[in-house]
Amino acid sequence: MAHHHHHGSEAGDRRMIWAIGVNLALTFAQIAGGILSGSLSLIADALHNFSDAASLVIAAFARRIARRPSDATMTFGYVRAEVVAALINYTTLIVIGLYLIYEAVMRFITPEPVEGWIVVGVAVVALLVDLVTAILTYTMSKESMNIRAAFVHNVADALGSVGVIIAGTLILLYDWQIVDPIVTLAIAGYILWQAFTEIGGAIRMLMLGTPPEVDVTQLIDRLCGIEGVADIHHVHVFAIDERLTAMEAHVVVAEGHGETADAVRNRLKQIADAEFGIAHSTLELTIGRSCCEAGEAKVIGHRTGRSAGADGANGHRH
Asked: pTM here?
């Protein structure tokens, strides 16, 4: 099984290298075509395509780092390297999107002529490369936040290339020069919409946020209803990576169930996994009476060094 996974990883790495290569080649071709033709929308598409190539480079690097085993300095391992890379990629996209909006507005103020034939020719090549890249990254997009983003970006690039082709055609047929900055604004808007939609997931994971599919209140109610459980508090639920959700909590086992404490713990872990998708649970058990002062224990989160009297039951104050 490990041998198969090793070869699968190598095949994925090769696909990433090919995707990076064709995108970099396309980027240089688009920039040259944009400069020669005077098309801002073509340069806009090139910048977006370059960001895809850069994101693939970062994703490929992070993909290799993420496979490193855990050690004394990184006890959770390096799996979040891909999440960090995703945050970098989306932040870069936001910067590029804002820059393109600025350039499009300036082109409205000071219009410049555009050579339609060059625009259409380069955009057709770009469309083909975007489709090839999407094919290369499709399978891996199901496994990684980074590569999934790169796949979606390449589909968006294909749509952007279609927009550029339309712009170049309208310039050729009707000499509508204004359509170039309009298409640039549309590409920039789509980039920003994509980036702002996806960046929240990376930030949430890095902030140890609860995965959106887990209802913590429902989880606590369900676990508290298990026979032998007197109380549950100090609950933390977080995603270690895209595939592994973890929980830690303090469980008070009811009087008379001390001999079955291990069975209670196993039952709680089974329910957390089967019903809430929490595959890794660390549960501290206390028999009979909580080591936490009555009324002081927080159900969700943990206490800081300050008094928790006014904090309420959910969350904690800094």
From this structure: 0.73
Indicate the Cα dihedral angle 91, 94, 100, 104, nearest 10°.
-160
Look up residue 130 and give its two tokens: 């975007």
Q: Strand pairing of 245-253 and 278-287?
A: parallel
- 92/86 Cα distance (integer angstroms): 10
3-state secondary structure labels for all residues of 177-220? CCHHHHHHHHHHHHHHHHHHHHHHHHHHHHCCCCCCCCCHHHHH
Digit-coded pLDDT (tens) for 300-316? 776 544 333 334 344 43
Give me 250's structure tokens: 């303090």
Q: How far is residue 86 from each of residues 54, 198, 225, measured CA to CA in Å?
A: 11, 9, 39
- The set of residues, in sequence order, having a beta carbon less than 8 Å from that of 73 and lying 6+ positions away, is none
| Closest to 240 in 3D by CA, of 265, 274, 269, 206 | 206
